[in-house]
Write a structure and sequence with these properties.
The protein is mainly α and 208 residues long. It is built from twelve helices and no strands. The chain has helices at 2-19, 23-36, 41-53, 57-70, 75-87, 91-104, 109-121, 125-138, 143-155, 159-172, 177-189, 193-206.
């Protein structure tokens, strides 16, 4: 029926706009869907996500909390809530939420990645590496996880390990000059001058 089709149409519009990072249009479209079907948890979650992207974190938090009252196992709402706490610098609350996610499902790479990011911010690079590696084992094609493992090793001045993971990231994205630059740095710090020069040259070609 038209009553069923209309909110789906608005929902589809909101997703389309979100892929273009047009958050205001996304939020407007999902608001129209919610007028017709205010109880849809999926529509409410998208509304929370768009509000978060627009910087309306308090609104996003309230929506997430309402979703979780309705469905305490709605993992995406937990993830968004943990992002809100993380972005506010409330790492204790973020960790608490992330622990809940891991108990509900041990295969959510983003939860381990967020947990790793907290450890990284706290300069606990060993723990960050541990969590990023779990994230990478769940989602092995995400270059960002390898780059963050590399960065953590670099902070620990473990340059050979850092080089290995920067190379992993570079294999996924051969156009990223930053990876080649840090591969060169790692070579320089381990006195591998030939490879340092080679990677510096490669980085310069990518970002002249």
């Amino acid at each position: 029926s038209l009553h069923d089709a209309l909110p789906i149409s608005y929902y589809a519009q909101s997703i389309y706009y979100s892929k273009l990072s047009l958050w205001e249009k996304s939020e407007k479209a999902i608001s129209e869907a919610l007028k017709i079907n205010p109880k849809s948890l999926e529509y409410n979650y998208q509304d929370a996500k768009f509000n978060y992207e627009l910087g309306k974190k308090d609104t996003a938090q309230v929506i997430c909390e309402k979703i979780l009252e309705e469905n305490p196992k709605y993992i995406q709402a937990y993830i968004l809530l943990s992002k809100i706490y993380y972005s506010n610098g409330d790492y204790t609350k973020a960790q608490c939420i992330l622990s809940k996610i891991m108990k509900l499902d041990k295969n959510i790479a983003e939860a381990y990645s967020l947990c790793a990011s907290i450890y990284f911010e706290q300069k606990n690079y060993e723990k960050a590496i541990e969590q990023y590696k779990i994230a990478a084992s769940i989602s092995p094609y995400n270059e960002e996880y390898y780059a963050k493992i590399a960065e953590s090793y670099f902070k620990l001045e473990q340059y050979k390990e850092a080089f290995i993971y920067y190379k992993e990231a570079a294999d996924f994205n051969i156009t990223m000059a930053k990876y080649r630059y840090f591969m060169a740095k790692c070579c320089e710090f381990t006195n591998d001058i030939e490879n340092a020069i080679s990677n510096y040259s490669f980085a310069k070609r990518l970002a002249p």
